[in-house]
Automatic annotation (TrEMBL), chains A, B:
The organism's taxonomic lineage, starting at the top: Bacteria, Pseudomonadati, Pseudomonadota, Gammaproteobacteria, Aeromonadales
Metabolic or biological pathway: Cofactor biosynthesis; adenosylcobalamin biosynthesis; adenosylcobalamin from cob(II)yrinate a,c-diamide: step 2/7
EC number: 2.5.1.17
Source organism of this protein record: Zobellella denitrificans
Enzyme class: transferase
Name recorded for this polypeptide: Corrinoid adenosyltransferase
PANTHER family, alphabetized: CORRINOID ADENOSYLTRANSFERASE
Keywords for the protein's UniProt record, in alphabetical order: ATP-binding, Cobalamin biosynthesis, Cytoplasm, Nucleotide-binding, Porphyrin biosynthesis, Transferase
One CC-aspect GO term: cytoplasm
Length: 205, 205
């Protein structure tokens, strides 16, 4: 065997050993996690992908025959592509009856709309037939003091044990982060916007 | 008018003014971004939500009547919930014929499988009828040197001008980050795993 073949074989063996150690680590972690219960997932931060990941989770749940529901707290006048696919697949949508909050400039009206929509969320969070609830852009309702924090926390804490919840939005309140099981912070590294590329249907909304 | 009413009114006025300034900023940004073209979006980092955001983008595109396709470079034995929903909705799936890379421990076999799957990706990236291509978990193929970086960059650079591409996976290669229009880094704040909660169908896969 040439010296080069020998080096190649050693390299290949080391690669297999590294993969084996990685596999053992992953297997041990999987074996240690045995509890099955509803997960509270928070997707926060200023980067693109939070709501999209929320809707992706809904698509995944529906694909597994689970019952999912969507509550949208901030929604522009734009048509929502996900809704066109998911609503006919049996996912009910509850949408706050006001545009982007910074377009209404009427705090009382926003608060009333937020509370009405939260009442829809509360019904879903009390319904054991619902496997997954997406609370899209909920975080702003707390940053703007449109919803009472204790009321929100209480509904989340008392939901059915198997029910998953996904909360999206920037600057998530610390109390929600603490309550959550999984939290991802989506940070913007760069955005097409800055390069002059406009938001496009079927990609950005 | 009482002093308290006065204070409340001032507070409400200031709120409206803040919202107005925010709206003006957003409007100015939107007006400045006028170019319409395919966006290369990279979702990287170690947090939960990258692939889910990728599939959410596919769901959004399909909801708008766009043609999307999915290429999955790493895929366990688990059933994929998104596929059950998206494939019947007309989204073709191309899945690399090997399990999680750290379960195969055969570098030559992994490289052959990666190259075969990349050939599928190349066909999609050359097809102007496809509006969106999701390259799920592509980043690992570059970190493990399973695919040639120049070959990957070339197909991305020469794709149809209107075609959007989403790339997901940890530790994305710097050259892809540079080429991308939008990059989000999904960072884990905490994960249910660590609290002993197991991965559950319809939520984690």
């Amino acid at each position: 065997m040439s010296e080069q073949d020998d080096r190649e074989q050693t390299k290949a063996r080391r690669h297999r050993e590294r993969q084996q150690r990685l596999k053992e680590k992953v297997d041990a972690k999987i074996a240690a996690a045995t509890e099955e219960r509803g997960v509270l997932l928070v997707l926060t931060g200023n980067g693109k992908g939070k709501s999209t990941a929320g809707f992706g989770t809904v698509a995944r749940a529906v694909g597994h025959g689970k019952r999912a529901a969507v509550v949208q707290f901030i929604k522009g006048a734009w048509e929502c592509g996900e809704r066109n696919l998911l609503e006919p697949a049996g996912v009910p949508f509850f949408v706050m009856r006001t545009g982007f909050t910074w377009e209404t400039q009427n705090k009382e009206q926003d608060i009333a709309a937020a509370e009405q929509t939260w009442a829809d969320a509360e019904r879903l969070l009390a319904d054991p037939a619902i496997d997954l609830v997406l609370l899209d852009e909920l975080t702003y309702m707390l940053s703007y003091h449109y919803l009472d924090l204790e009321r929100v926390l209480s509904a989340l804490k008392h939901r059915p044990a198997h029910q998953h919840v996904v909360i999206t939005g920037r600057a998530c309140h610390r109390a929600l982060i603490e309550l959550a099981d999984t939290v991802s912070e989506v940070q913007p590294v760069k955005h097409a916007f800055e390069a002059g590329i406009k938001a496009q249907p079927g990609f950005d909304y």
